[in-house]
Design brief:
Layout (H helix, E strand, L loop, with lengths): L8 H8 L12 E4 L14 H6 L3 H16 L2 H4 L9 H15 L5 E22 L8 E2 L12 E7 L18 E5 L5 H10 L4 E5 L20 E4 L1 H12 L5 E22 L3 E11 L9 H18 L6 E8 L7 H8 L3 H4 L2 E7 L10 E3 L10 H14 L5 E3 L8 H5 L4 E5 L8 H7 L23 H20 L30
Parallel strand pairs: 4-5, 5-6, 6-7, 9-10, 9-11, 11-14, 12-13
Antiparallel strand pairs: 1-2, 2-8, 3-7, 4-8, 8-10, 12-14
Length: 509
């Protein structure tokens, strides 16, 4: 799950230089029509039969392959990773494309390259007074400190929430800005601090928890920026408000660079092309680890379901997507929806997001996507998952539908969405321990965004069961959209001005 960067069509044209607006009206490029195979001789997809075809052995073997790809990045990163731009991610893309390519003409297969910004923090340290706060984390996409060397200065308390140039006193020049989280984005705060002459910035939380965020689209005025918990910020604030001086040393060695990466899209040759069920997972990991649960489990679930679906015919087209750059801020899914013409948008009846299907300390989580807050049809999809868990005598919980994964761009552009997950860095409650087993007081995935997110980090029971549920969701809508809300011209909209708390796994506000 993912930091953020939202590319507007104008920005994309600027980045790619000579490209014209008309070129961005084609959502899929490098298309490879593979033929219809012998689809007409196959039975119509049936949910029970498709679910029965899912085997944990196939999923585990795919996971082992994925980890071997992550190992290809060791010479550059010092450990296995499948972050965009790495050899591990390139091998992952080749694997997915090749696997679908071999499926006997059942899918039209496409690659969709797009520009991306990625960041990597190699080293960081923050000292405040004589303390090294444990909650200090560099923001995603932060630039380094000057010359990648430590910078020293007094902490200067910024007024209000640091969203206006007048909030930054003249004394911030040559010093370190201390800014409260809220209202405007972290990127805006960093940029304003840089314009005011600060050598670094610290954004502190108004809550006790740590603050892991992103600066979003890089600008020349961004300065090296840390997040800090409200708990660690409290004593510092007290001193600053009493007029006591507090000095600080900040150090970040990082890089932020532009690259090109690729989405992979596969659509059934058969099925009504004007009524598509779409589902996706992300192909990349964070730079810190191999990402076998996040989101190897989701992307491999899609690949296995896509493979087993070839045994059946479908009434409605099924479109699988493997997004790149999710961990850098939902880049691939944002790009896909951003350049999608209105008439193509309307062909997508719903989008289902599958991110982290087998967390070790799992809970069966359903996004609480209601029609009141999201495009109509989102609630019906939510209820499909709930009904399936209930039918199998399984507990479930609802989790916020707050923009933390690749469904975000779809619902912002009028496409119903939803999905399931098994938990990331959240802490399992005692009640959930009773409902699902595992251990209360620990993260759902103790290896979330870490080096230990390897093959042994995926719970086979949860992964197999949820892959069967994914198969059920595909089979249901591939056979019929009966009773599901229709799309219309009025349901296509852009709400890019709306700001969510999250865009990917990192906070943006």
């Amino acid at each position: 799950m993912a930091s953020t960067l939202h590319w507007s069509r104008t920005l994309l044209l600027a980045v790619l230089g000579t490209a014209t607006a008309s070129e961005f009206q084609i959502p899929l490029v490098a298309q490879k029509p593979l033929g219809a195979g012998n689809a007409l001789t196959k039975p119509l997809v049936n949910t029970e039969d498709l679910q029965a075809s899912i085997k944990i052995e196939n999923l585990v073997e795919r996971a082992k392959s994925l980890y071997s790809f992550a190992e290809l990045s060791e010479p550059e990163y010092g450990h296995p990773t499948r972050v965009i731009g790495s050899k591990g991610h390139s091998a992952t893309l080749e694997y997915i494309y090749s696997a679908v390519d071999k499926l006997d003409g059942y899918y039209t297969l496409s690659k969709q390259p797009f520009p991306a910004v990625m960041g990597n923090v190699f080293e960081s340290r923050l000292v405040i007074g004589n303390e090294v706060p444990k909650s200090a984390f560099p923001m995603s996409l932060t630039p380094p400190t000057t010359n990648k060397q430590p910078v020293h200065g007094d902490l200067i308390l910024v007024a209000n929430e640091g969203c206006d140039p007048s909030d930054y006193p003249s004394t911030v020049t040559g010093n370190i800005a201390f800014v409260l989280r809220g209202k405007c984005s972290f990127g805006a705060k960093s940029e304003l601090a840089g314009k005011a002459g600060a050598v670094a910035a610290i954004v502190y939380n108004y809550a006790s928890g740590p603050l892991s965020g992103t600066l979003e689209s890089p600008t020349p005025d961004h300065v090296a920026t840390f997040g800090l918990s409200g708990e660690d910020a409290g004593p510092i604030l007290k001193k600053l408000k009493n007029g006591d001086g507090v000095d600080s040393i900040a150090y970040i060695d990082s890089e932020v660079k532009k690259i090109e990466t690729t989405n992979i899209i596969a659509q059934t040759v058969e099925g009504d092309p004007d009524n598509c069920v779409m589902l996706g997972g992300h192909s990349d990991s964070v730079s810190e680890g191999p990402g076998i649960n996040d989101d190897g489990s989701g992307s491999l679930t899609l690949l296995e379901v896509a493979t087993q679906l070839t045994k059946f015919s479908v009434n409605n087209c099924v479109r699988f997507a493997w997004w790149a750059g999710e961990e850098e801020g939902l880049l691939g899914s944002d790009y896909y929806v951003e350049v999608l013409p209105k008439e193509e948008n309307l062909k997508i009846r719903l989008f289902m997001d599958y991110d982290m299907m087998g967390s070790p300390n799992f809970a069966y989580q359903v996004y609480n996507a209601t029609n009141a807050a999201n495009p109509e049809g989102s609630e019906q999809l939510r209820n499909l998952y709930v009904d399936w868990y209930n039918a199998h005598g399984l507990n479930h919980t609802f989790i916020p539908f707050d923009g933390r994964s690749d469904y975000d761009a779809f619902i912002r552009h009028g496409i119903p969405g939803g999905g399931i997950a098994t938990g990331a860095e959240g802490v399992k409650t005692k009640e959930e321990e009773i409902m699902f087993g595992g251990k209360a007081g620990e993260w759902y995935d103790p290896c979330y965004h870490q080096l230990c997110d390897d093959v042994g980090n995926v719970n086979s029971t949860a992964w197999l069961l949820n892959t069967k549920l994914v198969a059920h969701s595909v089979a249901t809508f591939a056979a019929s959209f009966k009773g599901f809300p229709e799309r219309s011209n009025t349901t296509v909209f852009e709400s890019s001005e709306q700001r969510a708390k999250y865009h990917g796994h990192r906070l943006i506000l």
